[in-house]
Amino acid sequence: RQLEQYTPLHVAAGKGREAVVQVLLAAGADKEARDINQQTPLHLAAFQSHEAVVQMLLAAGADMEARMSAPGTPTPLHLAAVEGHDAVVQVLLAAGADKEARCTNQCTTLHVAAGAGHEAVVQ
C-alpha cells in the first residue's frame, strides 16, 4: 500500500491503533473519508476485525451503511461477515446495521458468511 492514498485515520483504523484513532477523531478527522478503494476507516476496521475501533468509529457517528463506491458494493458488515469476524458483526448489528443490505450480486450478509463457511457469523 502506498500510504499517501490513505488518511491517517484509515491507517490507524486498519491497524487497530485505538489510542491514535481516538486522538484523530477528537481532532476532527474525517470519519467518512475515502481511500483509493473507496473504503472508509470503518470498512478497514471491520475487515481487519478491530472491534474496539469499530465501536469508536460508530460512537463518533461513522456511517455503518457506507458503500465502497456505487450502490450494491460492500458495507462494513459485508466485509466483517465474509472474513468471519463474528464479534465485529455483532457490534455492527447491535448498532443497527442492515443485515438485509445487498451487494451487486444480490448477496446479503448471511449469503457471504455462509458462502465463506463462517458458522459463527451465520448463527
From TrEMBL:
The keyword Amino-acid biosynthesis does not apply. InterPro entries: Ankyrin_rpt, Ankyrin_rpt-contain_sf. ANK repeats lie at residues 4-36, 37-69, 72-104. PROSITE patterns: ANK_REP_REGION, ANK_REPEAT. Keywords: ANK repeat, Repeat. Coiled coil: none annotated. It holds the Pfam family Ank_2. It comes from the Eukaryota. This is Ankyrin repeat protein. It comes from Heterosigma akashiwo (Chromophytic alga). The lineage of its organism: Eukaryota, Sar, Stramenopiles, Ochrophyta, Raphidophyceae.
